[in-house]
């Protein structure tokens, strides 16, 4: 493999700082240039905003109503930066950026310790060119952070079992698993790593020392439980002693429905068992898995206990998520850093072989072709792209065309000698273009709720009060006025009945909702049209749209959201 001059010497610190600098530039590019985008980002940012505005940091709330789907750790990170700076738009992407940089460091450092700096460099390059890693690092979804805690936990286990025995690192791994669990329930995934380790040990295929495998391993769960208890015990105490039934509902939902029930009997994102292997990994882990078809890879794995354990863990994680009927592509992200570590170790041993150069060239051709085709569709104002990007597609055509020429340039430059450095360089340039030019073009399209809320606020006037039904979190996030809603968690018809009752009580009250044939208590044909956002038509319902009568709601529910500090 041809190695650029800057990597000629085996300098741990120099190589690490260069890779961290490149990673930071790619991940942090565009911070402050866009707002939170659906589906998940507006929800988490709104919860963080309400933590600061309400002073209630312990129970996540959405529109003043408890948000029972996730523990609070990720929202805390966004809220803390908002509390420090007063600026959400400039900071909401920072927590995942920092978490991803920590993941990169862990992959680099453990690779250098287990093998050498060359392996560490290659492992990080593999991680950076896998599209899923950077995609999530540049988002405000929860998965990049939980992947970070899982990576840190794997780092500690690898140090203890394959570098040098250290109970401190072993116990720290369990503590980070606990932190991962209270970030998102799957933080326990590093436990699967103990299966291949113990099989190797007790089958005598690789005997670990007494300092590595002994009774003190049983102390690990205590470290995890201590971290869990720091959040779980106060939450249980407040839920059990408070007279607020919402707190009890939050406790039951987060402990049962969002954990075991969601895994075993998912109610959303239903996919076939082969979804990750067929629809996610081929595109989002490219080209890491290519080595699985190489005989030399399996020869290397066979003689390396560390590689055997890493591969077994990655497989176990993918199998674990494949068993559950509910699947999203980002679920398997926690396995990606260890997959990169595994492939970095292999490539450092055998080098970049001709067949893999051809894989990289094929990938570059595919990526470049996609951008050129997208540019052509935009220049021709094709309906395929217009329905996603709006009528003015020409400005996107130039973005795609320039990016396509970047990929064409690297193909011309490295046609016969494509390597990880060239591939990582063109990927980095692509991400920076997308994060600057692309963010600027896409932000108005991905945040249409801003315009809807502005028109609603103008129509109701300064004396008007606004309520919401069938809403999404971005409408809460982008509002500059107080809002009332009627429980996000109840049926839409119950929301309608509560909204009708609320409007009848006082004049100058209005409801923002979607045009929906299932609506009750209102005549949508008499509503004011506000525009289209995220594939739905939004309407404003006034007094003249109210039905003469309406069935009483089963339970009167309403939540008021004061706007102490608005999104900025």
Automatic annotation (TrEMBL):
Subcellular localization: Cell membrane
Major localization class: membrane
Organism: Marinomonas pollencensis
Superkingdom of the source species: Bacteria
A GO BP entry: response to iron(III) ion
One Gene Ontology molecular-function label: pentosyltransferase activity
Keyword annotations of the record: Cell membrane, Glycosyltransferase, Membrane, Transferase, Transmembrane, Transmembrane helix
Protein name (database record): 4-amino-4-deoxy-L-arabinose transferase-like glycosyltransferase
Transmembrane segments: 12-33, 142-162, 174-203, 215-239, 273-293, 305-323, 329-347, 359-384, 396-413, 420-442
GO cellular component: plasma membrane
Matching InterPro entries: LipidA_mod_glycosyltrf_83, RgtA/B/C-like
Glycosyltransferase RgtA/B/C/D-like domain segment(s): 69-230
Topology of the protein relative to the lipid bilayer: Multi-pass membrane protein
Leader sequence residues: none
